[in-house]
């Protein structure tokens, strides 16, 4: 009997990211390339860590910027709906990808080259985060915090309700009470998250323009391993 061909690379490739944090359309191969860049290039991991000291969602932003430089045909087309905090990244990534400088540095040698894509990403990511300003960064960080907190509490409420259904008497009543409190707390955080999201949405264009200017000011002068640099204006 003939044994069907097995694509071992596909079998063991990481799964795509479906937690609502990824802007760029991708597959497991792209996730593997990103993980490889973090593993092989210590400065990339350092850039993520440094970025997260100011922006809680920096890991996802840096990953999307890396894919924008590394993938042959990157598209801002999330696989699943983005969280409110990560939805802000879409505007920033699209603004970066609309610049001449971004196209020039890709042409200089980042496509399919993890090292060059890493070097380009590090320069642009740092500039974009710095350009947002402390007030905006604070709003985004709080949005991410309360949005994540609300999701955790809603999950806790559901778990407690499931346990309550299987319990009896006083234990069931206590579990239902805990579930109600968790849901109440979750709804309060959800309301706060919505307020932060609306405030940031009102500033979406101006924040996106900051990201665009930051990408241009970075001049894509990333010191590619080939020695090439883009000719930014």
Describe it for me?
With 233 residues, the chain is mostly helical. The chain has one domain (15-217). The protein is 71% helix and 0% strand. α2 (28-40) packs across α3 (42-52), α4 (58-70) crosses α7 and α8 (134-166) packs antiparallel against α9. The longest helix is centred in the C-terminal third of the chain and has 34 residues, at 169-202. The termini are far apart.
Describe this structure in a few short sentences.
With 233 residues, the protein is mainly alpha-helical.
% residues in beta strands: under 5%
What is the terminal separation in angstroms?
63 Å
Number of helices: 10
What does the main sheet amount to? none
Shape: elongated
Q: Which stretches are low in confidence, meaning pLDDT under 50 for 5 or more residues running?
A: 1-8, 226-233
Cα gyration radius (Å) = 21 Å
Whole-number count of domains: 1
Sheet/helix structural class: mainly alpha
SSE run = HHHHHHHHHH
Question: Could you report the average pLDDT, rounded to the nearest whole number?
Answer: 89
- Helical content (DSSP H or I, runs of 4+): over 70%
Q: Write down how many β-strands occur, each being a DSSP E stretch of 2 or more residues.
A: 0
Fold topology:
Layout: H1 8-12, H2 28-40, H3 42-52, H4 58-70, H5 84-97, H6 100-109, H7 114-132, H8 134-166, H9 169-202, H10 204-217
